[in-house]
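Quarterly update, task 2.4: magnesium ion-bound model.
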Amino acid sequence: MTLLRCLLFVPGVDRRKIDKAFSLGADAVILDLEDAVAPTEKGRARQVVQEVFQSPGLPPTYVRINGVETRHGLQDLQIVVRAGLAGIMLAKAETAEDVRKVSWLTGLLEEERGLVHGSTELVPFIESARGIENAGAIASACPRVKRLAFGGNDYTADIWTSYSGDGTELFYARAKLVNASRAAGIEPPLDTVCPFIKDTDTLREDAKRARKMGFQGKMVIHPAQVQPVLDVFSPTADEVAAAKKIVAAYEEAKAAGAGVIQLDGQMVEAPIVARAKQILSQ
Ligand code: COA
Ligand code: MG
C-alpha cells in the first residue's frame, strides 16, 4: 500500500504552474478541472490536461473532473481515462450511485481504449453534509474506490460556517470519513486543503490534527504547503526508533512466553505492536 502524504492541487488550465507542481516533491499532483477553472476556460483546460499527459515520466497524477451531471463532466471523463493517469477525483460526490455511474462510464472508456477493465482509480471527493452522511456507502460503492478525499472548504460552506483552522467544525466529518473508510476496508482518507497559504503554523497544526484522527495525508494548494505536510505525515525519527524498540521487545517477550509486557512505562501487547509495524511500513 503506497500512502499519499501530500497531494498538490494545480489549476488544470495553467501550464506554468503545472510544470512547477511536478517539481516540488509532492507524492502526487492533482490537475483540477473543477472549481479552479473558470466556466469559460473549461475547454482550454481539457486541452492543457491532454497535452500534459503527453510528457513522459510524470509523478502520480490525478485529475479532478466536474460532476458528471454537469455539462462539463462527461467531456472531462472522455479525456482523462487513459494510460498514465493515477486516478480521477470526483468533485462533490454525494451518493454511491453517483460513483457507480462514473465507474460504469469509465469501464466503457477503458474497453474502448484497450485499458485493463477496472484499472482506473476513482477518488470520491466528499464535501457536503449529504456526502458525509453517505460516506459508508460511497466508500464501498465499487472496487475502483481505494480512498476518499475530504473537501473542507465546500463542506464548511454547506454547514453554514467557515474554515477556522482549529478543526472544531471539521471534527465530525473527519471522524466519519476515517471510520467509514476503514469499515469499508479501504485506505485511510485524504484530508482537505487548508486555505491559509501564508500561515504555515496553522497548516501544520491542521495537518497534525488530521494525522492524529487517522488520515493518510493531506491535499495542498500552494508550493509553500508541500514540505510542512510531507513532514507531518512522515513518521519522525523518534517514532521510528520507538516503534523498532516495541517490535524488538515484544518479539523477545513472545519468545520467552509472555503476551504482554511493560516498556518505558507503556503496556505493549499485540495491537500496540501492530501499530508500531504500521509506522515502520510508512
Ligand atoms: N502549483 C504550482 N505552482 C504554484 C501553485 C500550485 N498550486 N500555486 C502557486 N504556484 C507558484 C506561482 O505560480 C508562483 O510561481 P513563480 O514564483 O514561478 O511565479 C509561486 O508559486 C508563488 O505563488 P504565489 O504568488 O504565492 O501564489 P499565486 O497568487 O500565484 O497563486 C493561488 C495563489 C491560490 C491562486 C494558487 O496557489 C493556486 O492556484 N492554487 C491551486 C488552487 C486549486 O487548484 N484549487 C482547487 C482545489 S481546492
Ligand atoms: Mg470546491
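Highlight for this quarter: The domain at 6-232 is CATH 3.20.20.60 (TIM Barrel).
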